Amino acid sequence: MSMGEAPATPADAVQELREIAHSWVDGQQGEAGLLTEAALRALCAGLDTPSLLHLAALSPCEHDLAPELFGRVMDELGFGFHPPEEYWAGRLALARWWASEIVGGWLGPAEGIALIFYNVAEAYGRCEELNPVIDAVAAHWENGGPQRSPEEITAQLHQLARELLARIPAPGRPA
Question: Disulfide: which of 33, 48, 78, 152 matches 148 by Cβ 3.0-4.6 Å?
Fold first, then answer.
């Protein structure tokens, strides 16, 4: 579904909000109007949460409230992301969240692995938790790009996401 296209069902509306969340949680926040418009489309599709109506009803002069309300909407829909306060632990938690979104089918494997690689792994380089992603991306480019079918590549990226879930402890749990 493209942004701006009215979702047909509540499930479609949740998917649109999830797509916004995939970049939003990493601070790549677009304009608040995007959030209010997505909230309005979600309401029209039949989705309802306590904070969704508030988000959809924000006037332009209240857009500074949009990030907090969107955070509440994500929590109410069950896909909120709350990273640990320590920066590196938070980055690993973000990589784990994106990996869980891939495994759950809510984030495309290529897009998700790219988010993990460029927004987490590339910034920190090699570490035990992220080595599989770094190795896979390096091998892909060393071999001159895709050497396998799209299905094989997708399967490999899903496997990478599952490996990350096993390697990176869930926030709040001891390593």
Answer: 152
